[in-house]
TrEMBL record:
InterPro entries: Beta-PGM-like, HAD-like_sf, HAD-SF_hydro_IA, HAD_sf, PGP-like_dom2. SUPFAM superfamilies: HAD-like. Keywords: Magnesium, Metal-binding. The lineage of its organism: Bacteria, Bacillati, Actinomycetota, Actinomycetes, Kitasatosporales. This is HAD family phosphatase. Belongs to the HAD-like hydrolase superfamily. CbbY/CbbZ/Gph/YieH family. Its cofactor is Mg(2+).
């Protein structure tokens, strides 16, 4: 583990993932996938949720089609997945533990950005309803000239827009897909959630159970809020 790369350091900018990091939407994605599978009369393959975590919704729809042997349904599955997810988030937008406090503290002292695989309207709507959108100077999403995670584009662009070299920026992520993206862009990585076993543990410099972790809060007050 390389926790010292975070705990002894003051980043010049912070780039947050949205889904599962700032907003508690992973359960919404899971339910949206299940609803979409059912609406097409399909059964989720074993372990699909793990393979789909952090994946862009278009690629997720393609994966759903591929793994159920229905390649012609890729576009329809992607569209239905996004529609179902949007409806679920509108009903119940919830922030992750500690996210709002950390963002508001950091926003007073550092440039902040969001790097997401979700559509811009979705990200901005979620953050706005949570009262956090104004904390971020930039929202970077995958698009025509920005490849989705695990490609490094969203994090590279976010660091540049924040006005700092990638190595001076911290990425905050909950998915291995997002962590790979941030690593490839040159950012240091804070992982949230359970630390996985084996080589995947090295995907982040430091793992915390949540953004409310007392050691993380203490670090933020000392190295960001001071």
């Amino acid at each position: 583990m390389t926790a010292h790369r975070i705990l002894s350091w003051s980043p010049s900018a912070i780039v947050f993932d949205c889904d599962g990091t700032l907003m508690d939407t992973e359960s919404h994605w899971q339910e949206a996938r299940n609803v979409t599978f059912r609406s097409f009369g399909l059964k989720p393959p074993a372990g699909f949720a793990d393979r789909a975590k952090g994946v862009h919704y278009v690629e997720c729809g393609a994966l759903m089609a591929e793994e159920t042997g229905k390649p012609d349904l890729a576009e329809d599955l992607s569209d239905a997945l996004l529609d179902n997810f949007t409806a679920l988030v509108d009903e119940n937008p919830v922030t992750m533990p500690g996210a709002a406090s950390l963002v508001r503290l950091a926003a007073r002292h550092r440039p902040l950005a969001v790097a997401s695989n979700c559509p811009r309207e979705m990200v901005e709507s979620c953050l706005d309803r949570a009262g956090l959108l104004s904390c971020f100077g930039h929202v970077v999403v995958a698009g025509a000239n920005v490849r989705p995670k695990p490609q490094p584009d969203v994090y590279s662009v976010a660091a540049r827009l924040c006005g700092v070299p990638p190595e001076d920026a911290l990425a905050v992520e909950d998915s291995l897909t997002g962590m790979e993206s941030a690593r490839r862009a040159g950012l240091r990585v804070l992982g949230t959630g359970p630390c996985p076993p084996g080589p995947d543990a090295d995907a982040a410099d430091l793992w915390v159970s949540s953004l409310a972790d007392p050691d993380l809060v203490s670090w933020a007050r000392t190295h960001i809020g001071a």
